[in-house]
Amino acid sequence: MADPVAEVVSLLKPSPSISKLVSGGGSWLVERTELGNPFYCAVVEGCCLMTITGREPILLTAGDFVLVPEIFSFTMSSLEPPPREAAAQHLETSPGVFRLGNPDGPVEIVAMVGHCAFASDDRALLVSLLPEVIHISGEERLTLLVRMINEETRADRTARDMVLRRLLEVLLIEALRSTVGTAAPPGLLRGMADPLLAPTLRRIHADPGRSMSVEALAQDAAMSRSTFFDRFRREVGVAPMEYATGWRMALAKQLLRQDIATAEIAQRVGYGSASAFSVAFTRYVGKPPRAYSRNATAA
Q1: Of 17-21, 275-279, 293-297, which one has max mean pLDDT?
Q2: Would you say the pTM of this structure is higher than 0.90?
Q3: Would you say 66 and 178 are in contact if contact means Cβ atoms under 8 Å apart?
Q4: Residue 74's CB: how many other CB atoms inside 10 A?
Q5: Which of 16, 33, 44, 240 has the smallest number of Cβ neighbours within 10 A?
Q6: What is the mean pLDDT of the segment spanning 95-124?
């Protein structure tokens, strides 16, 4: 049976960007805006505040890990930050190693931070299935993975980029594994924690080419149509067929980038003919399959 979480991470295509080892002391504040990329941080010792625009500050302490799949504006600071208008004090002491605040004072925080990118054309759809913020305490595996990414980023080793991509995939999966449960916000993780919906999600991912309807999916889940529809939308955050269509189109885009014939793609993602698939794809993506394939090849 398919693993929806692994497939979503694979389709996101995480790629390396920036990884830093940061220490700080005294009063300090770093502000970042207009990123739109995933951000992660593992606190090695000490504590600090992370404040995402529109959210309450998050206290990060030693052993904490935080991942934001898509972040646009946030600050990280000491527990008593300086005024926002104060000039930031940061110094790069060696490649990828930074000191914040008073460079001559005692070290009060050590953290490993990083940014990456999602290369998928469907990043908006796939990110929408994940929690907006993942905050985990005491998972040593996550800290170890961030440390490996940090070390690999600064090293000049053979196959470095490939290793970093694989490490980022494992980091994302480990973070998502630690969040699975009913406490997660509506999305794929919460749906996978529901014993009645998880088999449905696995079937959608395992066989996107089969005929699907709300009635058929509800019958598979041993629920009435209305109960299944309401439960799916409440737990996953979208209607069942909206989820199925989005997943089919994400797969179709991947197959089109591989220059596979439209008729074969139509069969793989559940459309009775190439013309029916072309109409659905154009309505969903805004351009016909051939045009999308040409643009993807050119890019």
Answers
A1: 275-279
A2: no
A3: no
A4: 19
A5: 33
A6: 92
Q: What is the Cα–Cα distance from 80 to 49, expressed in whole angstroms? A: 9
pLDDT in tens, 7-20: 999 999 999 888 99
Helix axes 289-298, 240-257, angle to 10 degrees: 50
Cross-strand pairs, 222: none
3-state secondary structure the chain: CCCHHHHHHHHHCEEEEEEEEEEEECCCEEEEEEEEEEEEEEEEEEEEEEEECCCCCEEEECCEEEEEEEEEEEEEECCCCCCCCCCCCEEEEECCEEEEECCCCCCCEEEEEEEEEECCCCHHHHHHCCCCCEEEECCHHHHHHHHHHHHHHHCCCCCHHHHHHHHHHHHHHHHHHCCCCCCCCCCHHHHHHCCCCHHHHHHHHHCCCCCCCHHHHHHHCCCCHHHHHHHHHHHHCCCHHHHHHHHHHHHHHHHHHCCCCHHHHHHHCCCCCHHHHHHHHHHHHCCCHHHHHHHHHHC
d(CA 68, CA 132): 6
One-letter amino acid of 147: R
Residue 241 pLDDT > 80: yes
Name the token pair of 127: 């990110």
- In whole angstroms, what is the distance from residue 189 CA to residue 177 CA? 8
C-alpha dihedral, 45 to 46 to 51 to 52, nearest 10°: 10
Q: What is the mean pLDDT of residues 184-206?
A: 92
Mean predicted confidence (pLDDT) in 72-83: 91
Asked whether residue 181 carries a pLDDT value surpassing 70, the answer given is no
**Maximum pairwise Cα distance, the chain:** 69
Using CA atoms, how far apart are residues 269 and 106, in angstroms rounded to an integer?
Answer: 59
The pLDDT > 90 percentage for the chain reads 76
**Predicted pLDDT of residue 84:** 76
